[in-house]
Amino acid sequence: MGLYAEVAGEGPAVVLVHEGICDSRMWEPQWETFTRAHRVLRLDLRGFGRSPLEPGRFSNARDLIETLERYGFERAALVGVSLGGRVALEVAIARPELVSTLVLVAAGLPGEEPTDEIRAAWAEEEAHVGGRPAATARGCGSGGAQAGGRDAAPSVRAPASRRR
Description:
Layout: E1 5-8, E2 13-17, H1 28-34, E3 39-43, H2 60-70, E4 76-81, H3 83-94, E5 99-105, H4 116-128, H5 134-137, H6 153-157
Parallel strand pairs: 2-3, 2-4, 4-5
Antiparallel strand pairs: 1-3
């Protein structure tokens, strides 16, 4: 699997994992700052930004672990937002020796589906941006997943054929 990833800087390791409506470009302001004093990795999860969504089963956490290993990250601070927070949490549970610090922002729990209230809020948000993917309206790059914005996020996490 060819996930898009970038590494820059020297110093303590930091890994930035994007939310489910953006890609690694959401971290641009932090990238510019953190790489001055840290070794930083950011990646596009499968189906986001410059990483393809190939058919078949996969685990975002396994993909992140393989990416950490490929770039020689022995231990890192994992920073994840929403979907990225869930992925970071799954990595911390599966391979705690890889994680020095865990920063989770609005992270979902593995196996938990959005409530009806959250789905209604998403629908209202989409209505306010005139049918464009909400992420694009917010300037989040291409609108998240290649299939388009938040509508694609459940396809990354929900189908039984893709669960571990």
